[in-house]
Design goal:
Elements (H helix, E strand, L loop, with lengths): L8 H4 L21 E5 L28 H13 L4 E5 L9 H9 L11 E6 L4 H11 L3 E5 L5 H8 L4 H13 L5 E7 L8 H11 L2 E6 L17 H9 L4 E3 L9 E5 L5 E5 L12 E4 L4 E3 L8 E2 L1 H5 L4 H13 L19 H4 L2
Helix pairs in contact: 3-4, 4-6
The protein binds S-adenosylmethionine (SAM) and iron/sulfur cluster (SF4).
Length: 353
């Protein structure tokens, strides 16, 4: 997982260029411009909705993509029209060379993207006090930070680590380094943090951040997700509307969050109602796991192996063709409501949320 043995990006281009200009389109006409890359499946927290207390068996080291491999895949994806790359995990900042990865992704260019892809990060913030400024210097501009509660005892229960103060320090460090916008993500859970929705919006609004609530999805390692435990998007809006004047922001395009202006602005709040109000019809996302498997959907039950062609000498065109094949199998929707729905084998932490 280190960045040695790296050839210059340009030198890695094979004679057979992936057909630049032809976008990554699936059978339903959706064009894919957003690539989520999991930098590692490891994590410093154990959020109940994501990982069991004892963690999960980590992906074996030799299967993890080296940095030169990861950058090569990102470059091929950018050649195929990807415009935005989000780094996630596990906890992406546990990857020792995360700052270098950001710098090298920021430097990617394609004829259609002369300024390079937009790079963003989803993190639990624990390493941001040390890394926020180096990340900004490397070209990062935006960050999403997970914070489900403002109460120390609850944070300890939810994440199984007593690290609320460190998360808050990480958020402050992101702000001080100039990362903007800062979005704060909370999974809304019945009987756990649903009484903090208003406090979380106030916390974010006062600091100029956007609070975003996420419906809990069936992606936990223990496969114990229950619809009843999920606080739904409409319930979240009902609770917030009792306290704030909420005005819809309008068309959201392919963005997962539906957004509202809070009390006339400038603050906004977002709700990601993936379960009750799926936005699959406008989905433009593909996901690369830390061990080099391409997934067309968070809930996909199949993956396309890119690590093997990366390591067997395949050229860029062959890898681009594998990326296209992955999208051929993309289903029109996640199907959580279908009685035959099966949770994917990988938990969220190993997919990359
Ligand atoms: N460790 C980083 C973090 O927590 O921000 C990045 C990875 S985490 C898997 C990415 C996002 O997925 C977080 O905002 C987290 O709250 C969310 N998440 C994890 N499990 C989830 C679940 N079962 N349902 C909904 N969101 C989930
Ligand atoms: Fe770690 Fe993020 Fe999963 Fe929490 S949600 S256990 S911080 S990967």
């Amino acid at each position: 997982m280190t960045g040695d043995e790296v050839a210059p990006e340009q030198a890695q281009r094979s004679a057979a260029q992936p057909s630049a200009g032809r976008p990554l389109v699936d059978r339903h006409g959706r064009i894919h411009r957003d690539l989520r890359i999991s930098l590692t499946d490891r994590c410093s927290l154990r959020c109940t909705y994501c990982m069991p207390a004892e963690g999960v068996p980590w992906l074996p080291g030799p299967t993890l993509l080296r940095t030169d491999e990861l950058i090569r895949l990102a470059r091929i994806a950018v050649d195929l029209g990807v415009e935005e790359i989000r780094l996630t995990g596990g906890e992406p900042l546990l990857r020792p060379d995360a700052v270098d990865v950001v710098a090298r992704l920021t430097a990617l260019r394609s004829p259609a993207l002369p300024h390079g892809p937009e790079i963003s990060l989803t993190t639990n913030a624990l390493r941001l006090p040390a890394l926020a400024q180096p990340l900004v210097d490397a070209g990062l501009t935006r960050v999403n930070i997970s914070l489900d509660t403002l109460r120390r005892d609850r944070f300890r229960e939810l994440t199984r680590r007593d690290r609320l103060a460190d998360t808050l320090a990480g958020i402050a460090a992101a702000d001080a380094a100039g990362l903007a916008p800062i979005k704060i993500n909370a999974v809304a859970m019945r009987g756990v943090n649903e009484d903090e929705l208003v406090d979380l919006v106030r916390f974010a609004s006062r600091r100029g951040y956007e609070m975003r609530f996420i419906e809990q999805m069936p992606l936990d390692a223990g496969h114990v997700w229950s619809r009843k435990a999920m606080v739904t998007g409409p319930e979240i809006i009902e609770t917030l509307s009792a306290v704030f004047a909420l005005q819809p922001v309008g068309a959201r395009g392919s963005a997962p969050a539906e957004r509202w202006i809070v009390d006339g602005g400038p603050s906004t709040v977002g709700v990601i109602a993936s379960v009750t109000q799926p936005f699959c019809g406008a989905c433009d996302r593909i996901r690369l796991t830390a061990d080099g498997q391409l997934r067309s959907c968070l809930f996909a039950r199949t993956e396309t192996d890119l690590r093997t062609p990366l390591r067997d000498g395949s050229d860029d065109a062959a890898i681009a063709a594998a990326m296209r094949r992955c999208l051929e199998g993309k289903l029109p929707g996640h199907g959580i409501d279908d009685p035959r729905f099966l949770q994917p084998d990988r938990p969220m932490s190993a997919i990359g949320g």
